[in-house]
């Protein structure tokens, strides 16, 4: 496996608003004084899933950076990933840093906050895969996938895991917005720059979903997940940054609302807040049903 400690941390991060073409104020003084949100994606490394959240957060004064684990062809160890994230936070030197992880990324983000709490102002975990440690059936699915040959891996991974990420509410909302209310079509007339951003981000998301990494990459990520969950189960009580868990109530993959309740009970209400997104499945919790700008005010 590659060691990310040998790589420039900046090469693995991107600004989604700039990449997808939304005009923003990039004045150096404003940038250095702005709070920073760093997003760590899920198991498959899909980085564009929260794209609807970024424009409102940028308008609220945040800078956004996304960790692109797929930028390297071989998945790093979790220690190297955490180290790369912490190196980036040191270089960014932001006055306030909110570290946000989705699913697998939640385990990595929490591990980073546990290792270097001084670099993390607050943590937001979206459907955190820390639930993996409490789900023997999911652990068995991961072991089964490790034995599947590359040629059969895409079909097997969908049958065992992918179908559980499906979010009927997300699809229904998208169909209504596009075909019935024609929101994007109307947005192209009223706010063409924002509409162009959505078009570019959606295209990138579709490309990420349709071009999955090879099986060996996922094998390494599952190994990281097991290691990270083991570390966190021993260390949750030592976690210092304020924690917010955002969980979909219809997450068939990780039962995230149950995991959120477990961690809230373990850490207590003073250290852990929970926001439930009603009806959201694993892959749709950060869609328009969640106003992340309002929610993160609990920990920022």
TrEMBL record:
Please give the coiled-coil regions recorded for this protein. Answer: none
InterPro entries with a match to the protein in the record: AB_hydrolase_1 (IPR000073), AB_hydrolase_fold (IPR029058)
Q: Would you say which domain of life the source belongs to?
A: Eukaryota
Which residues are in the AB hydrolase-1 domain? 35-284
A Pfam family matched by this chain, by name?
Abhydrolase_1
Q: Which GO terms describe its cellular component?
A: membrane
Protein's UniProt name: AB hydrolase-1 domain-containing protein
Annotated source species: Emiliania huxleyi (strain CCMP1516)
